[in-house]
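Hi R.,

Here's the chain you asked about this morning:
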Amino acid sequence: MSGRCTGTAVARLALLCSVGLGGGASAQGDEPGVVSYQTQAPMAATAPLRANGIGPLVLGARLTTAARRTLPLDAAAAQIGPGCDERDQISVLLKVENHTLTVMAMAGIDGRIDEVLALPTDGATRLDSIAACQAHGERFAQTLSHRLGAATPQAMERKAVSDEFRFHFGGGAQVVARWFAGGFSCDLLLQFRNRQ
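And the predicted structure, written out as tokens:
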């Protein structure tokens, strides 16, 4: 499916698409010529973590209203446009529970938010093993548990290019840790989604 992305979404999507392709390597121990996709995150405003989203970006809210309420936190909230899957979306940078996250909120055809994704801005992490990735995801989920409740680990899912570990919270949110064996990298995602 082809799609158009806002300028902010394109820049952040480029970072997301680099995951698993050598991104996230630390400066120590890199081979000459290896490019790291990690960047220093700019200052981000703090937003509360909720059972159904982050700050004003909560499931069921009108995207336009949520974007307006998010403007004081990040001016990028003014840029509502079609994301790469053709849903209207905004993409902002927020600090949540001591994590700086790129937070994207996408709306369904009714204009209401039906999915919120939050990714740590430090990108993928180089790890030694799939077990280390699973433990990394579990630690991230634990940092959110005082707001979202205890996370229940699910069975690993094997995908075409990654292995995924999911940690479900009682309210429907989940953390996903994706292991890319080819690049020895692991990325994290916090997801809120309306169940269909």
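DSSP finds three helices and 14 strands in the chain.

Let me know if you need anything else.
M.
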